[in-house]
């Protein structure tokens, strides 16, 4: 059968003020009817450009310089505007990252959905409306008719993405292009969306081009996968072959950089890919990956164009000059080296909570209490990592902010090495500020763009440690060495650095005060996996042998499993499970922990689909909940008990689970 | 909603009290007294003192202010010293003229700037965009008086096709409607230049939003993407600024009114202030503040209508 979409040697160039740069370089890709093809790679590798080229919607300045994009055998470039319009939305539809901004904020969901059939030949508005409602039911939105009248901001992120998917499927297209459709969504919602797409694909027979930086989601959904690096397809094949026996060093690097959800921490290090993609690599005559490749042999790899070659199974191709000579992929070291013992308790939280009052008074709105964090009792020990996981809205960031003093006065008792740690940053003495430091998620927005790296590091040194100018300069250089940043970067501004370098600066800045406690809120979730691995290793090195403690806030269970000594699982402002990492990741589980573990995507095509997919949204933190906070979504809810009585705390040694279920003690 | 309106009304009332009191008090502090001004430099001090007492100016400030507020509530705005008429009469006459000019200007400026702003912003850096942007910057950067003088030189002195003054009475040569052309043109060019730039910037921003891409990739023709999806979003931010033009048009046209000898509200305020005609200044302030507060209220309500994310 003819391919739905095929790219034949497509090169795309961007012409800008800084000259011409090649975004895609001779990409061949085809998708058969009903097939799901994944496209992976780090940011800047050209994945999204492929998606936009498939719709002939390239950004200004970009143009196809060679090759053809064929849809059902017809060259998109040869079509006029009218033909293109009849294709878009009708035969090819797109689902985007960030559903909130992909929907028009001032139009109802209904109007935006109905537009699709009305643009493609439907004349009867009532019939279009019925079709929209039926489609909303297909994507399993409860109360489809009411949703039609809502505006995008009145829906949750998961609901918005269901609406975008419904909109894409309205005209039953033969190709669905999905560009990072689950990035930014919580794992439980991601799992539900992926299940939905699998199901819809089986029912409608739609072919899918699935673009993601997340190898786990690709493994769960796709038949075939292509790996892009610097605009070139470096490996392609069946998803099983590529993930099981990756041939190209870059693919291997991507897979090896990931922390493994099913392997406990044991002092093992992640394997980052060295360096970053720089502009010159795009124009490299041989392999673009050469400067970062551990197996590079400059004579063979840098000589000239390298063709895709057979790499094992049928249709499994890789673009590597040393394909036959590469050493077999090493099984990642299961380095079970005894993990260092944790030191004495540094941070101790007893019944810590943070409630906000909103509305009331002159605002004209009823007074409500937002229970962002309730009754959290946790501890972080010197030399160890306390990780807090949960979906957005679970209160994990609120805990971090309370500890760092960014949330003002809080309830309960918090102490640092036995001394009370209370109030906000304004009321804390400077010495206390020095001892608690924070690293934020997005280094782009937390570093002042007008300060050089050196200045950003010297300021806390002078303010918190009272160093003189010359001492501060020397100390800043030492800090940069400690986070493995080259000294010459001291004069640079944040925008001249890569994302990984910026996060290193942020970490160095936090270390400047020589803190006892480092609070890191999603420190690597804005970074590519290869860079993420390097930052994770850095944090591990900094902790090893020091008496600092790390509080790690993350939504990534695999990362937590890799880094944490103790884990707290939070839901709707409450700690539902807490204990040493080894025990939290082993049964008995709180049903919420179990659901999170099931939902986490694994880069393994043979991993079974999650048995538990959480339905429904998290309740509002303004609701007063009498029973267990998780009762409304719990797959093991006992009616009449869980929704009326607060759950008892079941204690297994250092491991605590707040649940009504009679959980068996570990054997 | 009801609570919001109640709160805003209370707000308006409090602001009016505060502003009128401030104007009242400021008048006390500025040098030169009204009685002396009225009687001229040759009156004796006794005569001045007599008038001073007769006008009740020897009583404490708060008493006089309270009395003033009482009078206003009864609809008595006092008597103008320079125009020698009840303030209400002067005010209504001048305000009527100004509102007429403001209404015409507003009716020209808003559709013109929305149309030009949207056309310029829908395709960033296109020739149309560049043309409109340059035109808008030129208009906005020439001060009103300079623009007025240029226009007078061209259309009155050189071509002789338009009247040079706008006294609002039909003269032998010029009917009243022709007297409007130049003032409206000057105000429109100056003000629209600014609004076009605002609306263009907002439109450019909206056209970069992912939901515009969503609409295009649904297969929607470009002109419908602009009118159905982009325009309403692009007007949300400039909406307050558009309404603020009402304030400017009612109380900020002093320069244009003076230039064309147009008997308007701005000029009245200027004359009254120079002559320390406190009754007129007070009444004018009352009007100006009320207009400002009402446009703000209108702005909030319009915002809510434009953007469903905003609830009050």
Architecture per CATH nomenclature, i.e. the level-2 architecture of the largest domain in chain A: 3-Layer(aba) Sandwich
Biggest sheet strand line-up of chain A: 6-7-8-3-9-10-12-11
Shape of chain B: flat
User: Which overall shape of chain A is indicated by the principal axes computed on the Cα atoms?
Assistant: globular
By CATH reckoning, the class of the largest domain in chain A would read Alpha Beta
How many individual domains of chain A?
3
What Rg of chain B do the Cα atoms give? 24 Å
CATH superfamily of the largest domain in chain A: P-loop containing nucleotide triphosphate hydrolases
The number of E-state strands of chain A comes to 24
Helix/sheet category of chain B = mainly alpha
What is the CA-CA span between the terminal residues of chain A? 55 Å
Describe the protein.
The complex is a heterodimer of chains A (667) and B (312). Chain A is an alpha/beta fold. Chain A folds into 3 domains: 5-222, P-loop containing nucleotide triphosphate hydrolases (Rossmann fold, 3-Layer(aba) Sandwich); 247-332, no CATH class; 345-658, 3-Layer(aba) Sandwich (Rossmann fold). Chain A is globular. The relative contact order of chain A is 0.10. Chain B is mostly helical and 312 residues long. Chain B has a domain at 99-265 and 295-306: MetI-like fold (Orthogonal Bundle). Chain B is 76% helix and 0% strand. Chain B is built from 13 helices and no strands. In chain B, helix 5 runs parallel beside helix 13. The radius of gyration of chain B is 24 Å and the shape is flat. In chain B, 31% of the residues are buried. The mean pLDDT of chain B is 89. The interface between A and B is medium-sized, with 30 and 24 residues.
């Amino acid at each position: 059968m003819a391919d739905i979409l095929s790219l034949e040697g497509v090169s795309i160039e961007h012409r800008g003020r800084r000259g011409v740069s090649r975004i895609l370089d001779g990409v061949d890709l085809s998708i058969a009817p009903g097939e799901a093809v994944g496209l992976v790679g780090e940011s800047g590798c050209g994945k999204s450009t492929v998606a936009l080229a498939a719709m002939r919607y390239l950004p200004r300045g970009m143009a196809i310089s060679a090759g053809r994009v064929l849809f059902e055998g017809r060259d998109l470039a040869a079509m006029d505007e009218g033909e293109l319009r009849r294709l878009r939305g009708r035969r090819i539809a797109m689902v985007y990252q960030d559903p909130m901004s992909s929907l028009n904020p001032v139009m109802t969901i209904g109007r935006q959905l109905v537009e699709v059939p009305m643009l493609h030949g439907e004349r009867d508005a009532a019939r279009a409306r019925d079709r929209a409602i039926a489609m909303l039911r297909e994507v399993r939105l409860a109360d489809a008719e009411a949703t039609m009248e809502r505006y995008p901001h009145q829906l949750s992120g998961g609901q918005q993405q269901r609406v975008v998917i419904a909109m894409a499927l309205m005209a039953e297209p033969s190709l669905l292009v999905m560009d990072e459709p689950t990035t930014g969504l919580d794992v439980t919602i991601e799992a539900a969306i992926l299940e939905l797409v699998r199901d819809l694909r089986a029912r409608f027979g739609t072919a899918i081009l699935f673009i993601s930086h997340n190898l786990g989601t690709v493994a769960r959904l796709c038949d075939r996968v292509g790996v892009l690096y610097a605009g070139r397809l470096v490996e392609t094949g069946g998803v099983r072959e590529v993930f099981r026996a990756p041939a190209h060093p870059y693919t291997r690097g991507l897979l090896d950089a990931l922390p493994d959800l099913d392997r406990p921490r044991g002092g093992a290090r992640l394997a980052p890919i060295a360096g970053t993609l720089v502009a010159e690599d795009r124009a490299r005559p041989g392999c673009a990956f050469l400067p970062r490749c551990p197996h590079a042999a400059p004579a063979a790899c840098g000589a000239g164009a390298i063709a895709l070659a057979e790499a094992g199974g049928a249709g499994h191709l890789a673009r590597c000059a040393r394909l036959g000579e590469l050493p077999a992929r090493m099984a990642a070291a299961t380095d079970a080296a005894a993990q260092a013992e944790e030191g004495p308790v540094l941070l101790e939280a007893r019944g810590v909570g943070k409630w906000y009052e909103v509305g009331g008074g002159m605002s004209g709105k009823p007074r409500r209490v937002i229970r962002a964090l309730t009754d959290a009792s946790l501890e972080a020990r010197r030399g160890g990592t306390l990780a807090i996981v949960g979906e957005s809205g679970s209160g994990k960031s609120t805990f971090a902010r309370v500890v760092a003093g960014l949330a003002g006065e809080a309830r309960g008792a918090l102490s640092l090495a036995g001394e009370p740690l209370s109030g906000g940053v304004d009321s804390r003495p400077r010495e206390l500020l020095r001892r608690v430091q924070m690293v934020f998620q997005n280094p782009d927005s937390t570093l002042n763009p007008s300060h050089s790296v050196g200045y950003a590091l010297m300021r806390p040194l002078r303010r918190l440690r009272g160093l003189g100018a010359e001492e501060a300069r020397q100390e800043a250089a030492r800090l940069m060495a400690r986070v493995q940043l080259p000294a010459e970067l001291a004069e640079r501004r944040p925008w001249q650095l890569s994302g990984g370098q910026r996060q290193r600066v942020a970490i160095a800045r936090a270390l400047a005060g020589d803190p006892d406690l480092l609070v890191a809120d999603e420190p690597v979730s804005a970074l590519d996996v290869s860079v993420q691995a390097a930052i994770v290793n850095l944090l591990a090195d900094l902790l090893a042998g020091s008496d600092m403690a790390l509080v790690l806030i993350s939504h990534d269970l695999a990362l937590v499993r890799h880094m944490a000594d103790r884990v707290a699982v939070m839901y709707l402002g409450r700690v539902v499970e807490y204990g040493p990492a080894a025990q939290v990741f082993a049964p008995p589980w709180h049903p919420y922990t179990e659901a999170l573990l099931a939902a986490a995507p694994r880069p393994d095509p043979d991993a079974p689909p999650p048995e538990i997919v959480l339905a429904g949204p998290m309740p509002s933190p303004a609701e007063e909940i009498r029973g267990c906070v998780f009762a409304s979504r719990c797959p093991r809810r006992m009616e009449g008990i869980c929704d009326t009585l607060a759950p008892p705390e079941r204690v297994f040694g250092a491991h605590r689970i707040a649940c009504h279920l009679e959980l068996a003690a570990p054997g | 909603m009801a609570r919001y309106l109640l709160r805003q009304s209370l707000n308006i009332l409090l602001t009016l009290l505060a502003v009128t009191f401030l104007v009242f008090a400021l008048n006390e502090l500025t040098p030169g007294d009204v009685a002396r001004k009225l009687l001229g430099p040759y009156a004796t001090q006794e005569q001045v003192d007599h008038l001073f007492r007769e006008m009740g100016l020897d009583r404490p400030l708060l008493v006089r202010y309270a009395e003033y507020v009482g009078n206003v509530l009864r609809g008595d705005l006092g008597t103008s010293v320079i125009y020698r008429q009840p303030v209400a009469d002067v005010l209504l006459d001048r305000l009527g003229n100004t509102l007429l000019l403001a209404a015409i200007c507003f009716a020209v400026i808003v559709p013109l700037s929305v149309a030009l702003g949207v056309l310029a912003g829908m395709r960033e850096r296109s020739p149309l965009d560049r043309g409109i942007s340059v035109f808008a910057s030129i208009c906005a950067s020439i001060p009103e008086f300079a623009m007025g003088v240029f226009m007078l030189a061209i259309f009155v002195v050189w071509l002789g096709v338009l009247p040079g003054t706008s006294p609002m009475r039909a003269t032998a040569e010029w009917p009243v409607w022709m007297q409007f052309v130049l003032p409206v043109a000057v105000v429109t060019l100056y003000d629209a230049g600014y609004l076009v730039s605002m609306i263009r910037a907002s439109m450019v921003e909206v056209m970069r939003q992912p939901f515009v891409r969503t609409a295009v990739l649904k297969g929607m023709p470009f002109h419908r993407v602009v009118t159905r999806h982009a325009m309403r979003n692009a007007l949300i931010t400039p909406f307050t600024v558009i309404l603020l033009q009402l304030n400017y048009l009612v109380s900020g046209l002093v320069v244009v009114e003076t230039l064309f000898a147009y008997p308007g509200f701005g000029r009245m305020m200027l004359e009254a202030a120079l002559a320390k005609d406190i009754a007129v200044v007070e009444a004018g302030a009352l009007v100006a503040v009320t207009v400002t507060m009402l446009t703000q209220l209108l702005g909030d309500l319009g915002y809510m209508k434009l953007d469903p994310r905003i609830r009050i």
